Structure prediction request, 286 residues.
Amino acid sequence: MIAYIFAGQGSQFRGMGAEVFGAFPDLVDRADDILGYSIEELCLTDPDQRLNRTEYTQPAVYVVNALSHMREARNGSGVADYYAGHSLGEYNALLAAGAFSFEDGLRMVAKRGELMGSVSYGGGMAAVVGLSADDILDALSEAGLYGVDLANFNTPTQVVISGSTQDIAMAQSVFENLGASYHILSVGGAFHSRFMAPARAAFEDFVEPFYFHTLHTPVISNRRALPYLNGSVAVDLVEQITAPVRWVESIAYMARQGVTEWKEVAPRAILTPFLRKIIKSETSKQ
Prediction:
């Protein structure tokens, strides 16, 4: 069985998409009309240095992922038994499974990026490497850092935390004293945490008019680490904004169903290293 996995924010780089924009000129034009700027120029040259700003990053990665997967489908591949995407990448997984059109997906992603990038809260994120999620929770509690949430479960020993910039800075010595590696991420907010509640509320209103089609292929939900239920797409996409990305459990679920071949779609592959560590951990349990 084959699974296609789509990367999200963090996979972007200037020059991405060079191999796909020319193959889909009509879709590129439609993207420009929706966004109000040239998506090709943003991705290839980024003249105004906006690519790493959340409200621009998210549409850019969505478009490059979508066109890359469409190119694979045009070439006779791209069909999967399961789709999944990390955070923003989940929109590409749902697009691949027929949940909505390229255009509607882009409209939702653009609004999502705008809302997440505009939350008026001094938030940040950091990756903690070398500790389990339980160990991280214990350390945060002992340090009195109750305002920090676990945001992304990337591997069994790599978890991204989310909170105020002050708390994220204070947590560094806590985890380094426990022997973990600590990497403060260059992001514009405390994503996948309680602090995104204003963005979630506004996004819920925005997606209400959208129509979601029945999925023709299972898509694994970040929020539940189980396949989407038809009729639950809007709810899961709204809740995903404040919920953690349960990536370890999502990959483990697909592996248990018999997936043995994995194909990452991304401007720059960032999920494949996570995948290897998850599969190795799951295999060691057997």
